[in-house]
Design a protein that fits this description.
- The protein has 3 domains: about 45 residues, no CATH class; about 100 residues, no CATH class; about 150 residues, no CATH class.
- It is about 45% helix and about 10% strand.
- It is built from 14 helices and 6 strands.
- The longest helix is centred in the middle third of the chain and has 21 residues.
Length: about 325
């Protein structure tokens, strides 16, 4: 509601309220600064409202699975930025029984075709979106391996990206590709002007003709915001099985790069210390999978992760992001 109101204000009076860069470009949809002020005011005025949305505290964020493994606590959190976080109505013509039948069909397709059946499974994933969201939002949250067993195609690129699209009304791949084309070069030019040895080191290994621009920009953002690279990304030449056996994977979503970081041959995604996707080519798809996983699994960004917030607010222009952070987190 706040976003809709602020968007109308910004469209009516862009010179007074829109966020505009020094080059005269509108940042995101122009709303972040005013939106933050309005939301802060609303939260202040409703601070004693017992009907206010539940927020997950930073304490007790970890839970222990059936095998004693440490995993993230998901479940209901603020749904800012999501348009279908937990829909109550079933699709037209569907019942609980027919949706459960479709879920069984999905598992049958997987048992017959593996991930090769992802294209055939996509319409069924869309149809069963309601019961999948219900499962992901329950408390306590299901373990990642449990979700993967129940919904194997959710961990295909088609399944994950179509779910994110339904959840947020954002085509994640299209948005990232557009952002890379429109703002990627601006980020590179900005970093070249900085007197930072670590940034110069990243730029020195970047070859515009052969390197992956998305990989370079992700590294530059992490260096600029002084974030440990391993918080979001690990480099390896191993298979998925080798990674699990040899690497100390974080519980938060992590992008595992195969080959050279600037010229990756593939990527995998791990969550809760388990490889759940990949290996796949196309690094930008990996970035999309990494970012999408925080939304679809109701996870907070790692504490102090400005890189993910930058991707969300600047590259994707997806402003209502407080759902992804703790209440006490400060905007950057």
């Amino acid at each position: 509601m706040c976003h809709s109101i602020v968007r109308l204000i910004v469209r009516s009076h862009p010179k007074s309220f829109a966020d505009i860069s020094r080059r005269g470009e509108v940042v995101g949809d122009g709303c972040p600064s005013l939106l933050q002020q309005v939301k802060t005011r609303v939260e202040y005025k409703t601070r004693n409202n017992t009907l206010a949305r539940r927020r997950r505290s930073r304490e007790g964020r970890r839970n222990t699975g059936v095998a004693g493994e440490s995993r993230l606590t998901g479940g209901p959190v603020d749904q800012y930025g999501c348009v279908r976080w937990c829909p109550a109505d079933l699709p037209e013509g569907e019942t609980e029984a027919t949706l459960e039948d479709s879920k069984r069909d999905l598992r049958n397709i997987y048992s017959e075709e593996g991930m090769g059946g992802a294209e055939r499974a996509e319409p069924l994933m869309v149809r069963t979106y309601v019961i999948l969201r219900r499962s992901l939002n329950r408390m306590p949250a299901p373990a990642m391996l449990e979700v993967k067993e129940e919904w194997p195609f959710f961990f295909s690129q088609r399944g994950l990206f179509s779910h994110f699209d339904l959840l947020t009304d954002v085509n994640i791949l299209q948005k990232l590709q557009e952002a890379l084309g429109q703002r990627g070069q601006t980020i590179l030019h900005f970093c070249k002007k900085l007197d930072n040895p670590k940034i110069r080191e990243v730029l020195a290994s970047y070859d515009p003709e052969g390197s992956e621009k998305a990989a370079c920009i992700l590294q530059l953002l992490m260096v600029y915001f002084k974030e440990p690279t391993e918080k979001l990304m690990l480099e390896t030449c191993s298979t998925a099985a080798d990674v699990v056996n040899t690497a100390a994977l974080p519980s938060t979503p992590c992008l595992i790069i195969q080959g050279d970081t600037m010229k990756p041959s593939g990527w995998m995604l791990s969550i809760e210390g388990q490889v759940v996707m990949g290996p796949h080519p196309f690094f930008l798809h990996g970035v999309a999978a990494l970012f999408s996983s925080y939304y679809v699994f109701n996870l907070e960004y790692p504490v102090g992760s400005c890189t993910l917030e930058f991707i969300q607010k600047v590259l994707l222009g997806h402003q209502p992001g407080e759902r992804l952070q703790g209440k006490e987190a400060k905007p950057h």
